[in-house]
Amino acid sequence: MTIAKPTSLTLEEFLLLPETKPPHEYIDGEIIQKPMPKTRHSRLQSKLINAINQVTESKKIAYAFPELRCTFGGRSIIPDIAVFYWQCIELDNNGEPLDNVVISPNWAIEILSPEQSSNRVTGNILHCLNHGCQLGWLIDPDDYSIMIFRPQQQPELCHGEDKLAVLKNIELELIAKEVFSWLKMT
């Protein structure tokens, strides 16, 4: 993870910079490069987005976006998956979603990469929870665990047969073992 120096930019100045690959986040006055996703990360991200959108999109309950920049509460972050209730997605006059998201996702999902700081990623989830997010997941593919975060509650560590919490009104039942079974391609 690279931290760009100097970090004297304001959030407003940061948002005027062109997007980069890999993208950067603005956290507590620092510009921090997100690591490029690796194969296992991408596979989990894709499978989870598909599982969520399969049960939510047609009924207009919610939508899961990959790598969506969300700017709120003095930060500009890019959760691996940002899930918004349908009514929270701002649309233009053509019924298309606005490009600039200035609210916290309702459900923030992060998939830990080997070179990422778990505390920094956890900090982003906690920031989301402090700004209206109702649920956060931190997925660790190395130890096959998922940490569940809810506002004003102690985190819950899930693995194996543990049932995973999802947003209210989303009819999706997952256990930790099932999520990690998606890594197998045989």
What would you note in describing this structure?
With 186 residues, this protein is α+β, with helices and mostly antiparallel strands. The chain has a single domain (35-181), classed as tt1808, chain A (Alpha-Beta Complex). The chain has helices at 11-16, 39-56, 118-130, 176-181, and strands at 3-4, 24-27, 30-33, 62-66, 70-72, 75-77, 81-85, 107-111, 135-140, 145-149, 156-159. Strands 4-7-8-9-10-11 form a six-stranded mixed β-sheet, with helices on both faces. Strands 1-3-2 form a three-stranded antiparallel β-sheet, with no helix packed on it. A hairpin with a 2-residue loop joins strand 2 (24-27) and strand 3. It is globular and about 45 Å long.
Record keyword descriptors for this entry.
single chain; 186 residues; alpha+beta; tt1808, chain A; six-stranded mixed β-sheet; three-stranded antiparallel β-sheet; 11 strands; globular
